[in-house]
Amino acid sequence: MRSAAVALSLLLSLAGVAHAQELDRPAFGERTNSLENSVPSGTAVPGVLSLGLREAVDRAVKNNLAAILGTQVEQAADARRLQDRAEYFPKIDAFIAGQQQQVNLAAFGFGGFPGIRQVIGPFELFDARASLSQSILDYERRHNLRQSTETRRAAAFTNADIRELVALTAVDLYFQAVSSQSRVAATEAQLMRAKTLHDRAVDLKAAGVVPGIDVLRADVEQRTVEQRLIQAKNAVEKQKLGLARAIGMPLQQQFSLADRLPMEDQQARSADQLLAQAYDQRSDALAGEARIRAAEEDLKAVKGRALPNLSFRGDYGAIGPSPTNSHGTYTMRLEVRMPVLDKTIDSEALEKEAVIRQRRADQASLRGRIEMEVRSASPQEDEFALFCLGARSPYEALVMPKILHEALQLSDPEDLSSQENKRWREIFLNFLSGVSVRGGGRPMILKSPTHGFRVSTLRELLPDARYVLIVRNPLTSFESVVRMWRKMFESYALGPIPADDEIREAVLADRPRFEAKLASSTPGLPQNRFVTIRYESLVENPLGVIEQLYGRLELLDFEPVRHALMNEVQRRRQYRAKGSLPSPAWRERIEKEWAPILEQYAALR
């Protein structure tokens, strides 16, 4: 933990870490029913189909139910936009009518006029006419079109987000199945080992070297591994069925997974860079912005009803007793309309303003969720992984910050119960083995100051490990640790976050424990396996200090990494570490309670 002014890094070559165990790969995340369902396409073909990752993703994007529904929603939004756009075009109608009519004037109150018959007709009338209407200036229609355009854009972004989730779901299900196949292979290897040990026990008993209980023990172990193998194979088939259901493959189709877990290194980027990219490119964030703009245009459309609008209407045709006895006529009408009193405009505007505030609040919440997802998905210290895997850890305080004092006592496995100590060791070795397999067996660096509490345990588990102790000004590191805990609480805490002074009390009390543990466990380490360097020297001359580190720890040749390290130093040249000092009151307490620590730091200068 960062309550130490030092960062303890372990450069571990995992060639000596045996008994690699399989690790449960966490699921991609919670998935809705539509993401795990699909519309099956095609029919099963004979034999076993080789399914690659790209094909699985293509099938999912095409057949997954969520992707299909998202496309239909986008098309409906586009149809609404086309409807609003059509209001801008002229409306042209044409008709041809012929009629015969007889009129009773008495029915309309006319009668008794000398020389005028009471009944007129019958007579014929023919009319062939075309009419045109065109809105010239209509603020409501203008903003309606803009609103539907933004709504359509939001639907497109939402559909893109759904398709991304579908692709991620397919990738996650695919590699879960790949991971399960790896467990099958590992269990098969364990079964071979168990069978070998069983045969050896039988031979030794026959020779009278071991008692019969050893044969029974070996037989039970073999049966147990056989049962685990059956369970592992069943798990693979269930996960393959889930994958087939999500990508729209016929469930009766037999297939194998052609791709394996990728091993490519990813370009390292800071959480701030990833966060900026997420805000600019994530489809859900872009959809939220479009929905806000749509709501704003909706409000303008309502207010536009209170403004004058201008329209034109006209017609032209031929009218007469018959088509051969007709004459052309026309009308033209330019109309300006303006509402004088319409109280519904005000009430609807209030409703639209509330919608805007709601969508802005939703977007602010979404940005917070995006930041949490990005920062929680960014690389963490290995202590975070151990905590997530179930090992006792000071990071238990992330769940309940109020127990920070008690959680800090969990740093050293030797302070735990025997059962918890054993479980911690198993989880730690399993974690290292999994990372080693994932990294192709390359040397590993673990950077977690909590390891300073447990060097004695690490020396027992990893006898060939090298240790690097990076010492920083205790006064500066004090506030750095407080900031670290506060930021982690803000990101992960499920309970109330303690005040900064409560965090400072815990940090102040924990540092002497760290120094005592470290001092009692490092004596006897050879010079080529334990090195202490100053943080300030590392910042001032990173290339030179690391080159010296390679020599003192007798690591591999430094030249192959020199160029890559120079590029990394150049990329981070603008970085400046925060170096705020504690308040005078806290500085006085630190200088009193950390006096031996401050003296040790001064001796290194």
Model description:
The chain starts with 5 loop residues before the first strand and ends with a helix. The model is unreliable at 1-32 (pLDDT under 50). By secondary structure, it is an alpha+beta fold. The chain contains 18 helices and ten strands. The chain folds into three domains: 6-14 and 389-540 and 574-604, no CATH class; 33-71 and 147-263; 88-136 and 309-341, Outer membrane efflux proteins (OEP), CATH 2.20.200. It has helices spanning 53-63, 65-86, 139-206, 212-247, 271-281, 283-304, 344-377, 382-388, 404-407, 418-438, 455-461, 474-492, 500-521, 535-540, 542-552, 559-571, 584-593, 595-604; strands at residues 6-12, 48-51, 91-104, 119-137, 254-257, 309-322, 325-337, 444-447, 466-471, 530-534.
Q: Poorly predicted ranges (pLDDT <50, ≥5 residues)?
A: 1-32
With helices defined by DSSP (H or I, 4 residues minimum), what is the helix count?
18
Mean pLDDT: 85
Can you give the helix content as a percent range? 55-70%
Number of discrete domains? 3
Question: Which structural class do you get from the secondary structure elements?
Answer: alpha+beta
The number of E-state strands comes to 10
Order of helices and strands: EEHHEEHHEHHEEHHHHEHEHHEHHHHH
The rounded Rg comes to 39 Å
End-to-end Cα distance, whole Å, is 24 Å
Beta-strand proportion: 5-15%
Q: Overall 3D geometry?
A: elongated
Largest sheet, strands/sense/barrel: 4 strands, mixed
